[in-house]
Amino acid sequence: MKLLRSSKKWDVFVWVCELASYVFVLIYFFEELREIIYFKWRYITKFWNVIDFLIIASAIASGAFSVKQYLRVPMTIDAIRDNPEKYANVEHLGAIYNSTNQLYAVLLLVVFLKVFKYLKFNKTMGQLSSTLKRCSKDISYFLLMFFIVFIAFGEVGCLLFGSSVYNYKNLDIAMFTLLRTTLGNFEYEEIGNIHKVLAPIYFLTFIFLVIFVLLNMFLAIINDTYDDVKIEAPPDELQMSQYLQNRFYKFLRIIGIKKNFGADEQKNAVNTNMELLGQKLEKRGFNHFEIDMFFERYRINPEATIKTDELDDSAEDSTRRSKRLDTIDNASKKLEEIDETIGLLFNQVKSLHKRLDDIETKKKKLKRP
């Protein structure tokens, strides 16, 4: 346990860095406080807002304990020097020191979680976060079922082996033992010697349900969702290296060092493969057959390249044509409905004329003597 923080020169540097970090935490606190006042209860509905709140709370708490330790240590040392014959009790300093380290550990963990927010610039990490976000509902249902099965096996293990085996003495120890079993760390002989029949049934049933079924189901949920995210991911997603490169080139343009740079990159960025045209047409509602007919009609080579503005213009033109065709189809459908209505009215009028003729005929027959 280290009580004196400024005993070495390096400790002074660390103390200055901590002071600077607490200044940033204070600024960060007022920013988050403004968001809490503005969003109110909606603030906690976002995951990253909760992470920010935990960072601020753990930073403030660790800072408070650090200041308390910084103030109490000199007082305790002075008291020991004044009464050297009296027993020096420094347990309270040890408790403060341990609490400070624990809060620092929590702060470090939450800060590392916050790093994942900025890793979305990377395509793979962005797909990972999107996968976890999309399958969170399925995973929650899976975890509910998993814990029900896990607790059930823990209780059964307590009832069967709790009186003879320490690893199944109570529910907490039994569940921890089962968790070790899922990781391959188990001692079957402990329960096998107790029950020759029930022990293998219990063990094999747990292995089959939890490892072969539930864990593979969990992996299947993650894998299927990742495949969907990977298919739906945009092909031209901005990477961290590209972002930094663009910012660096922009800085060079601002200071006037380099004006014409990356001509090949700009040319490649302007030229877009015709496959992207097909993808844009597909997003606008065209199927593959219509896209092939479009290429065939206008004699477009699918391997050719066009400019981005031409790509957008062609897609918009195709959309306008599609809307015109939809309008014509709707008009023709309305005309057909009108024709059907006129036909029904004509049939009704014809039936009325026929009924009137029948009535006239009956009247004439009645007038005859």
From TrEMBL:
GO CC terms, sorted: ciliary membrane
Protein name: Polycystin cation channel PKD1/PKD2 domain-containing protein
GO biological process assignments: detection of mechanical stimulus
InterPro entries xref list: PKD1_2_channel, PKD_2, Polycystin, Volt_channel_dom_sf
GO-annotated molecular function: calcium channel activity; calcium ion binding
Localization in the cell: Cell projection, Cilium membrane
Transmembrane regions: 12-30, 50-67, 102-119, 139-162, 201-222
Start and end residues of each Polycystin cation channel PKD1/PKD2 domain: 7-229
Family: Belongs to the polycystin family.
Classification via Pfam families: PKD_channel
Species whose genome carries this gene: Acanthoscelides obtectus (Bean weevil)
Coiled coil: none
Gene3D superfamilies named in the record: 1.10.287.70, Voltage-gated potassium channels. Chain C
Keywords recorded for this protein, A-Z: Calcium, Calcium channel, Calcium transport, Cell membrane, Cell projection, Coiled coil, Disulfide bond, Glycoprotein, Ion channel, Ion transport, Membrane, Metal-binding, Transmembrane, Transmembrane helix, Transport
Membrane topology: Multi-pass membrane protein
Annotated positions binding Ca(2+): 310
